[in-house]
Amino acid sequence: MPYTVQGVVARAKGEPVSLETIHVPDPGPGEAVVNVQACGVCHTDLHYREGGINDEFPFLLGHEAAGVVEAVGEGVTEVAPGDYVILNWRAVCGECRACRRGRPWYCFNTHNATQRMTLEDGTPLTPALGIGAFIEKTLVAAGQCTKVDRQAPATAAGLLGCGVMAGIGAAINTGAVTRGDSVAVIGCGGVGDAAVHGARLAGATKIIAVDVDDRKLGWAKEFGATHTINSRDADPVEAIRELTGGNGADVVIEAVGRPETYRQAFYARDLAGTVVLVGVPTPEMTVELPLLDVFGRGGALKSSWYGDCLPSRDFPMLIDLYLQGRLDLDRFVSETIGLGDVEEAFAKMHRGEVLRSVVVL
Ligand SMILES: NC(=O)c1ccc[n+]([C@@H]2O[C@H](COP(=O)([O-])OP(=O)(O)OC[C@H]3O[C@@H](n4cnc5c(N)ncnc54)[C@H](O)[C@@H]3O)[C@@H](O)[C@H]2O)c1
Ligand SMILES: [Zn+2]
Ligand SMILES: [Zn+2]
């Protein structure tokens, strides 16, 4: 029987989100309905509400979630009702050219549920990142569900569904940070702090956190930053070079998504170093760089989608590290809130008061 539940919807560009009654169909072939237990508020949800991703309003927001599978459709074998899962927004297809080359984290054909969740009047909703998890029950493709150890509470586990995985993966997978590296992270929100934490996990010896907000820099230290720079007070490129023997960092991770911070990342890395762009820009942004510098500085300029993660490989592994006390997911949770508090959580995010507000259902 289809479900009628409450969910958080962005109806129009820039307008406050509202709690709406939503119809969730029974899972069809290859689909699953999941009882959402917790879902973090990510900056990307705000990007959606502001029309920065696309114009396919109304959006069902929320995409950083964990919960329990309620029902599965025909042909689903990877999960079963009762499984404890983290939702992922890159269910790999196994068949595209990236998958066939053995690089499924680049999958060019990731899939979502085929049926649509709708408002009461039948208007189809666009789920954020193909998930939509600020809702009591959500419909996803079964491949978007990754089973993990249920000892990890949903408030912590759900974070791996987006921002924290994006940050850790930007450091470990995309940036390939390893023992002894110097790493700089520009922008220390949930994603940037996860990159700081990931760099520490990978054995980086110098981890430089850059932000415009001293409170954020204080938190970055708790996640493992060895040095902090407030780029309102100092030129971050000069400061990073000074801290790295005049050279720049081996890996610089941009976790803001703006041209000026990308440029800082470009010049704050050592020769032959790596820049990882994990912050999401908006469509009108451009960046201009001397081509001779792009050539002459060598190294790699990379983008990181979802931390180049492979959910089936990375989620259970990171949950194990969490349960061993080596990955502090709880520290990212600034507050737990209800479904009706998402708009206020956006305001707190905007004011820099929180790393993650997590909706608990
Ligand atoms: N690539 C991915 O797969 C992926 C996944 C999730 C989120 N994101 C993106 O990552 C970015 C960060 O997300 P978040 O949830 O951490 O957001 P956030 O708002 O919590 O953090 C952004 C941080 O950047 C800082 N900042 C702003 N301007 C700055 C500047 N000029 N210099 C230095 N710091 C500055 C802010 O003070 C804040 O601490 C967003 O663009 C988000 O959309 C990307
Ligand atoms: Zn694929
Ligand atoms: Zn996100």
Describe the protein.
By secondary structure, the chain is of the alpha/beta class. The protein folds into two domains: 3-161 and 328-360, Quinone Oxidoreductase, Chain A, domain 1 (Alpha-Beta Complex), CATH 3.90.180.10; 170-304, NAD(P)-binding Rossmann-like Domain (Rossmann fold), CATH 3.40.50. 26% of the residues lie in helices and 27% in strands. The protein contains eleven helices and 18 strands. It has helices spanning 43-49, 97-100, 154-157, 163-174, 190-201, 214-222, 236-243, 259-268, 291-296, 311-323, 342-350; strands at residues 3-10, 18-24, 31-40, 59-60, 64-72, 84-87, 118-119, 126-127, 137-141, 145-147, 182-186, 206-211, 227-230, 249-254, 269-277, 300-303, 333-337, 356-360. Strands 3, 5, 6, 9, 10, 17 and 18 form a seven-stranded mixed sheet that branches. A six-stranded parallel sheet has the order 13-12-11-14-15-16, sandwiched between helices. α4 (163-174) crosses α5 and α7 (236-243) packs parallel to α8. It is globular. It binds nicotinamide-adenine-dinucleotide and zinc ion (2 copies).
